[in-house]
Design goal:
about 210 residues; mainly alpha; Serine Threonine Protein Phosphatase 5, Tetratricopeptide repeat; 2 domains
Length: about 210
């Protein structure tokens, strides 16, 4: 439950860049692969001027790891925040992880949950898993083991294999839960996995349980 591997994260960022804004990303990716971080930053700068969230996320990766710049966790968090506010799920996840684990800032579970949730609603498997941990432990949110197990299940389903942290988490949690709660979690899992229902389904469940 640590921040995403940053090299892989940046590679994913570049790979998913929309064709209309690839100019600069291809060059940045090549420079990053060659550890030419100065060139990578140069190629990202025009995109940063346009407030492109993927470029902002990339700058967060550079500052978090000290790639071509002095390692600066508050600066990394600032770049992640810019991207996260524009809906970049990788930035939302990393910002949540920094708050959860106190990376460059005090531990703040409510803020961790705040940023994990929108990433989870976009299907980010790590955000789903980590948000499940917060609900399992009641950290920053009201404890809800049914929801925690469902989030683990959805994470595993999206990952497409059982070799994930969420798979380990769900097995341990399910062994501690009464059978009727496990059945509730399975029903919730089925609802959340319906096409297009992850975000509205989660919102509906939380509204119902808050009453």
């Amino acid at each position: 439950m640590t921040p995403k591997p940053t090299c892989a994260g940046l590679g994913l960022l570049l790979a998913l860049a929309a064709p209309a804004v690839l100019a600069g990303f291809d060059e940045a990716a090549a420079a990053f692969a060659a550890a030419d971080y100065a060139t990578a930053q140069s190629e990202l700068r025009p995109l940063l001027d346009k407030h492109d969230p993927r470029a902002q996320y990339a700058m967060g990766v550079l500052y978090e790891n000290g790639f071509g710049v002095s390692k600066d966790l508050p600066q990394a968090a600032a770049w992640y925040l810019k991207a996260a506010e524009q809906g970049n799920s990788d930035a939302q996840y990393n910002l949540g992880a920094m708050h959860e684990h106190g990376v460059g800032m005090p531990v703040n579970y409510p803020e961790a949950a705040r940023w994990y949730r929108p990433a989870a609603e976009q299907g980010d498997i790590d955000a789903l898993s980590n948000l499940g941990v917060l609900y399992q432990n009641g950290q920053g949110v009201a404890q809800d083991k049914v929801l925690a197990l469902a989030l683990y299940n959805v994470s595993v389903a999206y990952a497409g294999n059982g070799q994930t942290q969420a798979a380990q988490n769900r097995q341990g949690l399910a062994n501690q839960m009464p059978l009727d709660e496990v059945k509730q979690a399975l029903a919730l899992t089925e609802a959340l996995l319906k096409p297009g229902n992850l975000q509205p389904g989660l919102e509906q469940y939380l509204e119902q349980t808050a009453r």
